[in-house]
Amino acid sequence: MLGRLATLFGIVLLIAACSSGPTLPSGFVTGTSVHHINAGGHDRNYRLFKPANVPVSAPLVVMLHGYSGSAAQAESAYGWDELADSDKFVVAYPDGLSRAWNVDGEGCCGRPGREGVADVAFITAAVADIAKNVGINPAKVYVTGMSNGGIMSYTLACSTDIFAAIGPVAGTQLNACRSARPTSVMHIHGTADRLVPYGGGQGFSVINGPPAAAVNAFWRNVDQCDAPAVTTDGPVTTSSAGCADKRQVTLITIDQGGHEWPPLATRTLWEFFAAHSR
Predict the structure, then answer these.
(1) What is the rounded CA–CA span in Å between residue 149 and residue 65?
(2) Which of 180, 182, 168 has the alpha carbon at shortest distance from 251?
């Protein structure tokens, strides 16, 4: 089981990025700092990137790492700090307990799933901690994630009402989402993903989820959307639906794309987030 989980989220090559470096400050300072809170009986931590001259009531993006990743790895791998520095928003990088997230409360994924770790409570508390100390705009809080982190993004949308939009990458929805709240969604996924299959079902992993198209249809129903418009540009097909209260549900399909964070995902997600607030 553990071996298959390690394969699932396919970031062995990024483990080197998780090695410890210089000790970071713990105050809410310009640049990257580390913060500690207690949630669900565990001492948890998150990294925060705060650009210089960030305005009052700046947007907040929460970036969730994949299985066997880390906050430090996510910060170095996906280019959010550089974009936040130029566009003046704040980025949080929570650390999953034992490098994973409890996405469904029924065993996935790793130690957090087995032990029922309160990851929703932790991430919610982290957002509240940032809001208290940095002064973010509560109408412009967003969450994105890679793989296990992408799945966790859906869990947060299903379990909280603090996110204006979510941006899962190479993930799926495992949470039953019985009390879904209207939320703008941009899902990015490759058709050749062997770990979290685009078409759903069992891949080379413990994940056995619904197809990306079915998850997209679920959220179009939640958000009371019109029929989607579909465009294709080379290997990228975008299905985007306008919804009630100016929300939007978009599925970006990358033909033959694998289990990866595409090069333009960060900029594309930020432009989507910036266009949607509560």
Answers:
(1) 5
(2) 168
Phi, psi dihedral angles at 229 (to 5 degrees) = -95, 135
Q: What is the pTM of this model?
A: 0.91
Burial of 19 (0-12, 13-18, 19+ CB in 10 A): exposed
* Residue 120 structure tokens: 């929703």
- Integer CA distances (angstroms), 119 to 49, 83, 127, 144, 152, in order: 21, 26, 12, 15, 9
Domains of the chain, with CATH numbers?
A: 2-274 (3.40.50.1820)
CA 146 to chain centre: 6
Q: Which two tokens stand for residue 126?
A: 């982290």
Query: Rounded mean pLDDT of 75-90?
Result: 98
Q: How many helices (H) and strands (E) does the chain have?
A: 8, 12
In order of 28, 74, 100, 187, the CA distances from 46 in angstroms are 12, 11, 14, 24
Across the chain, the runs of DSSP E, i.e. the strands, are: 31-39, 42-50, 60-64, 90-94, 141-146, 165-169, 184-190, 201-202, 208-209, 229-233, 236-242, 248-254
Q: Strand order in 229-233's β-sheet?
A: 31-39, 42-50, 90-94, 60-64, 141-146, 165-169, 184-190, 248-254, 236-242, 229-233
| Tens-place pLDDT, residues 134-151 | 989 999 999 999 999 999
| Beta-bridge partners for 89 | none
